[in-house]
Design a protein that fits this description.
Layout (H helix, E strand, L loop, with lengths): L16 H6 L4 H13 L5 H4 L8 E5 L3 H14 L4 E5 L1 H12 L8 E5 H9 L7 H9 L15 E2 L2 E2 L2 E4 L4 E5 H6 L16 H12 L1 E3 L2 E7 L7 H11 L16 H16 L13 H9 L3 E6 L3 H5 L9 E4 L14 E4 L7 H11 L2 H9 L13 H6 L3 H7 L12 H16 L5 H16 L1
Parallel strand pairs: 1-2, 1-3, 9-10
Antiparallel strand pairs: 3-12, 4-5, 6-12, 7-10, 7-11, 8-9
Helix pairs in contact: 4-15, 10-11, 18-19
Length: about 450
């Protein structure tokens, strides 16, 4: 039976989820004015660009050093010195929501994650970016845009965010351990092109697992604690041809693809026993990485930057390989791209769009790339200077040939938590995969309706 479209209804306090619990007093009104604000979203991009004010205020992530450099370039180029405020990613949602709820923004452009961009857009708090994406990215001649990185920029078929960097988890492997166990150290480089290579991945992980030179070695490590489990599970879901949500944001992951993804993770842990059992306690990359960097784990699916750490002289010293993930029906990953947005209440909209245009220019994307963040243009990752400094970009580019969806609905944090909890019920042996996934869908719909 078709469910009603949750995001076309009046938004209630319960439905606003994480921010709703903190700001109950005005939330029903926010839901009512959201569509109106979108329809009154200010002047068009063309008219906005004729109203430069000489002022620009930015809210950027504390990790966004390349974009801070581009802000300095903006001053040199246009004679406008941006005011830059930095925020950590965990603090971003509360900061923006508290400010926008008052229909005010001291910032003309802001950093946003994919799930946050959808949430802000659903409340009418962002300027529409359709024209910018089409004119500047698709037709701007800056490079070959990685289209799959735009998934988190869309809400209800329209763009509300612009990517400044891309990235998705990839496969890393210890070539030294491979050679010691008689395995081909170059084989994983082409697994992403090979249907059902996940089975080969598992066979390699099993062969690597055991006590070697007095040390317990596991063929695979990862971070599966809490909601971190959704990255590898979501990759497996899409490898089987599945999806998190349909076009109306309804959960559809409780199909055969979802069941198979869950079974594969259970088998790694309990049937094959080839994954580090501590993965259930690792919440992020730096929990899981020490074993891999120390040479005690054979393979690791995680963020691309680990390649640089792993190949350092004090780690695997050039013996860490990297490639797009293995395949079932296809290879897949979960997008981790980041975005810039223009608040609906920005006072200097023209300056904001001009700054974002500079950030997405080929010139500035070289700054991004050489700063250690993968650029949004695939052909820029082929640049010899950039590739020499960051060879893992080749694997990042390959990853975007395949599905990288993350299920970018406005209430993503809520349903990811529910789904992750149910996956953990399976991994703990308390539920069967289909039962757990059906329960996840039921609980999500209960929370929404």
């Amino acid at each position: 039976m078709n469910q009603p479209n949750f995001f076309s209804r009046r938004i209630t306090r319960r439905e606003l989820l994480s921010t709703g619990a903190k700001m109950a007093a005005g939330l029903s009104a926010v839901g009512a004015v959201g569509p109106l604000l979108r329809s009154l979203g200010g002047p068009s991009l063309a008219s906005a660009q004729s109203n430069f004010t000489g002022q620009l205020s930015l809210l950027l992530g504390s990790h966004m050093e390349p974009v801070v450099k581009i802000a300095q370039l903006y001053e040199e180029r246009y004679g406008v010195k941006p005011s830059v405020e930095l925020v950590t990613t965990p603090d971003l949602e509360a900061k923006l929501s508290a400010t926008f709820l008052a229909r005010h923004s001291p910032w003309d452009a802001s950093f946003a994650t994919a799930s946050l961009a959808a949430s802000l857009a659903s409340r009418g708090w962002l300027k529409n970016a359709d024209r910018f994406i089409n004119e500047k990215l698709h037709q701007g001649g800056q490079g070959q845009l990685l289209e799959r990185a735009l998934g988190g920029a869309r809400f209800q078929g329209e763009f509300y965010a612009v990517p400044w960097t891309v990235g998705a988890p990839i496969l890393h492997w210890n070539k030294r351990l491979f050679r010691e166990r008689g395995l081909d150290p170059e084989a994983p480089a082409t697994w992403h092109k090979t249907k059902n290579s996940w089975d080969t991945f598992v066979e390699y992980a099993k062969a690597l697992t055991g006590v070697h030179n007095g040390q317990q070695i596991y063929g695979y490590t990862d971070a599966w604690a809490g909601t971190a489990v959704i990255l590898t599970w979501g990759s497996l879901l899409q490898m089987h041809g599945g999806r998190f949500l349909d076009e109306e944001f309804q959960p559809v992951f409780n199909d055969e693809a979802g069941v198979e993804a869950t079974v594969k993770m259970y088998d790694l842990l309990h049937t094959h026993k080839c994954v580090d059992p501590a993965v259930l306690t690792y919440t992020w990359v730096f929990d899981a990485s020490p074993g891999y960097l120390a040479g005690r784990r054979g393979m690791f699916i995680t963020w691309p930057f680990i390649a640089g750490l792993a190949n350092a002289p004090d780690a695997l010293d050039g013996d860490s390989g990297f490639a797009a993930n293995p395949a079932v029906e296809t290879s897949a990953s979960v997008d981790g791209s980041e975005f810039l947005v223009v608040p609906a209440f920005a006072r200097n909209e023209a300056e904001a769009w001009r700054f974002i245009e500079l950030v997405t220019s080929r010139e500035a994307q070289r700054i991004v790339a050489l700063g250690g963040w993968a650029p949004i243009y695939g052909d820029l990752m082929d640049d010899p200077e950039i590739l020499a400094a960051y060879p893992m970009y080749a694997a990042v580019k390959d990853s975007y040939q395949y599905p990288v969806d993350g299920g970018w609905s406005p209430d993503r944090p809520m349903w990811v938590e529910i789904l992750s909890n149910q996956i953990h019920e399976v991994l703990a042996g308390r539920k069967k995969p289909k039962e757990a996934l059906d329960d996840a869908v039921r609980l999500i719909n209960m929370e929404r309706f």
